[in-house]
């Protein structure tokens, strides 16, 4: 009989034994199970531990989704208010433009009011507007709604007209009830000028409900509402969306209506709304949406999350029980194998369909081989570190010998050696970040020249070149040369003056090429003898990389050029 069958049979046997035991014995068994729960309990608990954070994270995502929905809705409401306001402004601006064109008619300039009447009637025939010409006494002298001359009367709404006579600028009126049209109207008033004097005011009238066609085509989500009020708080337009179109609401209060009225039965105090004031008409456009509309998707997500969570919990418990039985059998075999190892008996690996347990079964045979490989790897790393350390010591010794030879006193020697070691340390720090294998050239330049302005705002050092990864030897050699060049430039060259710059460029083709060019510094004078800097920037660099270095002490600025084989510079992939 297999071990797995034994495990499967033992579970109901244990349950029957637990139920048939006395109460005190059952409590003792339960206490032991709580102190050392079986694998089955651990797997069920593990399934819950894995699932619950996922459910909590999902709940967090739903909360974030709800908040984002509100933010998006607020932005959409604000944008929609501006879109609706702009649509109305375009219509009003068109009326003002038409009024200006008509106001400039030669018929008015010549006093031919009958001709002006005829032309204006023809111009406005296909529009939803009518026009009146108002004299300074606020009397109507021309009206497109009646033959010329009109019946003597005063204009119905004169507030904007009076402002035009005073300011000589076009004005947009608020909403008023036109007794002759029996409708709510608004108009634009345009001055008719003669010799810098307002002789008449041309009024273009339009019904407020004519704006329905201007706004109705705005595509909005369902249950969004909009209301436009004039400067005195009177309703110009009110609508609520239905099937993607804005439907005008006629039953809204005329004086100072609320955006809540547009929602009707869907009225809610919890709204997301935004308002914008037109600079052209001084009308206020308000767009709102009930918060309940925005939270509906989130509510559906919560319901789905809770339903899925309950199902997943039940499913996880069921899987824990099923797989607990399957895992318990090979674990029992592992314990038998470990017991055999403890007795010094051979422990042969056994086959199982669980890869991890099979790996544990084989790990004893593999342990010694893996340990030998680890020891060999450690020895290799130690040899590599020793080799690198020897190279570093040799380089430092060469620098120290040359610095001692070129230094006039101990302080100069220590300063020179300290700067060289600091440069090597910076290159080493950069290489350490990539396991001492390689470093990017641009990073090396910025690291070595950071103290001289590289990488800052308003920098005097300009870099130009492709992305190149240097090997460790090239990084240390070039880094040392760059630091020495920058030190000399800061003392005597272009970095010693505010207007000086250094351009560092590099390229890679058949060979690697790096150029240091100083511009805008003091006039360059070639040194009379080669010193420590010459050793670093020329001899050590060319020998270390197997290339050639050119040093040009041009009066306009030092130019240093390195040409080296690619294999000596570029890191291997």
TrEMBL record:
Coiled-coil portions: 357-384
Keyword Cell division recorded: no
Entry keyword set: ATP-binding, Coiled coil, Kinase, Membrane, Nucleotide-binding, Phosphoprotein, Transferase, Transmembrane, Transmembrane helix
InterPro entries membership: HATPase_C_sf, Sig_transdc_His_kinase_HWE
EC number: 2.7.13.3
Stretches that traverse the bilayer: 39-63, 302-323
Residue ranges of domain Signal transduction histidine kinase HWE region in the record: 384-467
Protein name: histidine kinase
């Amino acid at each position: 009989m297999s071990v797995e069958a034994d495990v499967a049979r033992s579970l109901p046997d244990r349950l029957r034994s637990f139920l048939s035991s006395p109460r005190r014995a059952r409590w003792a068994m339960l206490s032991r199970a709580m102190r050392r729960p079986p694998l089955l309990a651990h797997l069920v608990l593990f399934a819950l531990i894995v699932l619950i954070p996922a459910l909590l994270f999902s709940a967090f995502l739903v909360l974030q989704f709800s908040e984002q929905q509100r933010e998006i809705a607020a932005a959409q409401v604000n944008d929609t208010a501006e879109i609706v306001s702009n649509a109305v402004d375009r219509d009003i601006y068109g009326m003002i433009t038409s009024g200006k064109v008509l106001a400039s008619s030669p018929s008015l300039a010549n006093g031919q009011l009958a001709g002006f009447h005829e032309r204006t009637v023809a111009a406005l025939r296909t529009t939803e507007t009518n026009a009146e010409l108002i004299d300074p006494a606020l009397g109507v002298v021309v009206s497109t709604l009646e033959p010329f001359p009109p019946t003597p009367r005063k204009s119905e709404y004169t507030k904007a007209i009076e402002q035009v006579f005073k300011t000589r600028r076009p004005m947009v009126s608020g909403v008023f009830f036109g007794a002759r049209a029996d409708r709510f109207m608004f108009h634009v008033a345009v001055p008719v000028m003669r010799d810098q004097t307002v002789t008449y005011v041309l009024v273009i009238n339009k019904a407020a409900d004519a704006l329905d066609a201007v706004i109705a085509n705005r595509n909005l989500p369902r249950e969004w509402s909009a209301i436009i009020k004039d400067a005195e708080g009177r309703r110009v337009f009110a609508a609520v969306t239905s099937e993607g179109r804005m439907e005008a609401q006629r039953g809204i209060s005329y004086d100072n209506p609320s955006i809540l009225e547009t929602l009707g039965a869907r009225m809610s105090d919890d709204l997301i709304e935004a308002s914008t004031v037109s600079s052209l008409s001084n009308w206020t456009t308000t767009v709102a949406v009930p918060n309940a509309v925005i939270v509906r998707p989130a509510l559906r997500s919560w319901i789905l999350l809770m339903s899925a969570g309950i199902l997943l919990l039940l499913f996880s418990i069921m899987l824990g029980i099923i797989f607990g039985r399957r895992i318990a059998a090979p674990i029992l075999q592992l314990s038998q194998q470990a017991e055999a190892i403890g007795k010094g008996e051979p422990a042969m690996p056994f086959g199982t369909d669980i890869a991890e347990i099979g790996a544990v079964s084989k790990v004893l045979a593999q342990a010694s081989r893996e340990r030998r490989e680890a020891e060999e790897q450690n020895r290799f790393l130690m040899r590599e570190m020793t080799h690198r350390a020897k190279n570093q010591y040799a380089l430092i010794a060469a620098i120290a010998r040359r610095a001692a030879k070129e230094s006039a006193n101990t302080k100069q020697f220590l300063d020179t050696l300290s700067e060289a070691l600091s440069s090597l340390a910076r290159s080493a720090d950069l290489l350490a970040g990539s396991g001492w294998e390689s470093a990017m050239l641009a990073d090396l330049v910025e690291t070595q020249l950071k103290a001289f302005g590289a990488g800052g705002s308003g920098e005097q050092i300009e870099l130009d070149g492709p992305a190149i990864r240097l090997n460790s030897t090239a990084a240390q050699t070039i880094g040392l040369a760059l630091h020495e060049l920058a030190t000399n430039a800061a003392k005597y060259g272009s970095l010693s003056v505010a207007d000086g710059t250094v351009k560092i460029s590099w390229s890679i083709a058949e060979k690697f090429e790096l150029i240091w060019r100083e511009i805008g510094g003091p006039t360059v004078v070639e040194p009379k003898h080669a010193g420590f800097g010459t050793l670093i920037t020329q001899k050590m660099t060319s020998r270390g990389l197997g290339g050639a270095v050119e040093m040009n002490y041009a009066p306009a600025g030092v130019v240093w050029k390195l040409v080296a084989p690619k294999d000596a510079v570029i890191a291997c992939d």
